[in-house]
Hints:
Low-confidence stretches: 1-12, 268-275
Oligomer: single chain
Strand content: 15-25%
Radius of gyration: 23 Å
Number of helices: 9
Strand order of the largest sheet: 5-4-3-8-7-6
Amino acid sequence: MxxxxxxxxxxxxxxxxxxxxxxxxxxxAGRAPETLGVSTIARELGLPKAVAYxxxxxxxxxxxxxxxxxxxxxxxxxxxxxxxLAALRALDVPExxxxxxVRLVRGTGETATLSVRQGWIxxxxxxxxxxxxxxxxxxxxxxxxxxxxxxxxxILAALPAVELDEYxxxxxxxxxxxxxxxxxxxxxxxxxxxxxxxAVSLGERQNxxxxxxxxxxxxxGQVFGSISLCGPQDRFTxxxxxxxxxxxxxxxxxISAELGFRPPMPRSGGGEGTS
Length: 275
C-alpha cells in the first residue's frame, strides 16, 4: 500500500499588506522612544527583510514614519502624530469606561467607580451603584490624595519614578488609622501593586470600606486615573479581593486598550535595537 506523506501547514492567518503595515507601525509605537532598524523589525514580526523594507519605505514617503540617515533607524513621524492627536480629541474616557463599570457591577454585585488624576490628587467622576441594600457609594467630584485608598494607590503605582519620588518626598497625612504614611512601606506596597496588577484597600480611605482598583492609561502611556470595585470591608475577604482585583485589572486593561494604550513589547536578547 502506498501512503502519501502529510505536509504540515502553517496555521497562522496570512496578513494583508495593510495588516503588515499596521504591525510595523505598532511595533515602532510600542517601543517608542526607542528607534528601530529594519533588521529588528523584520525579525520580530517574522517578515522577510525585503518586505519590511518596502513597507517602511512607503510609510516614510507618507510621513507616517521618519528615517534617520545616520543611525539607519525609524521612529514615528508627523503623519502618525496627526492621527494620534485626532484620536485623542475624539476620546471620551467616562463614556468608554461606563460599560466596563456596568459589567463589573453585574459580575460582582459591588459598586464600581471611575477616578481621574489631577496633579497630586484624584477625583471621583463616575460610579455605578451596587444592587445590594448595604453598599458603598462615593461622592462624585470629591478629591483624595494619591496615597489613601486603592483607587489612589493604583494611580500612584503607575506613575513614572521621578513623579513618584517627588510625591513621596512630601508629608503624607493619615486619612484613617489604616492609611500608609511611611514612604518605605508605601514603596513596598506600590511594588506589590505593580506585580499583581491591582491595588487593595481595607479601611485606608474610609473606615469599614474595602476596595480593589487598577490604573487606566491613555494611548501615550500617561495615567488617566483608575477604576475600582468597593463595598463594605467585611465582604472584601482575601479571596474576594484576589478575584475582584483580577476582574478590575482586566477591565482597566481593556479600557486602556480602547484609549490606544499598548503595553511595551518584550525585548529580545541581543542583536540590533535591543540595547
